[in-house]
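Table S2 (text version). Query chain:
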Amino acid sequence: MAYTALDIIQHPENYLPNIQVDNVILGYHDKELKVLLQQTIATNKWSITGGYVGRAESIDEAANRIARSRTGLENLFLQQFRSFGGVSRSDDPEKNAATMSALTGVEVKKDLWIFDRFVSLAYYTLTDFSTVKIKKWPLGADSKWWPVNELPPL
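Corresponding structure-token output:
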């Protein structure tokens, strides 16, 4: 099954609710270490790259799919390092049905599970950032490499 960003809104039944994968994609080149961050169309906040787990894929497959969709790279070594599940970690007033409907042109229901609390399974990888062609994704406003010692508010 091909999982796409708008598919989450149009066919939420294809995904595991309340579980997401986050990838800390670190890039190294010429003695410089950077991290790939993204902004969604629903908020101006930066975050590490992430996405939802499809019902027909393992969490490792989801992590690889998400990394590939942002970097274009195949077979990245991804290592799960932690889970995050704080009670209020998913609270974001900017992420709501009205905003998502207006931005996507697709009716988004207020009770859609993407607005609920999430447990995130975090992975990391290291790659040569000079080989990555950052790919824009449908629900993304921007993605770019940030030096690890100059990160924006996350």
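Notes on Table S2: The beta strands are 15-29, 32-40, 46-54, 79-84, 119-127, 140-147. The longest helix spans residues 59-71.
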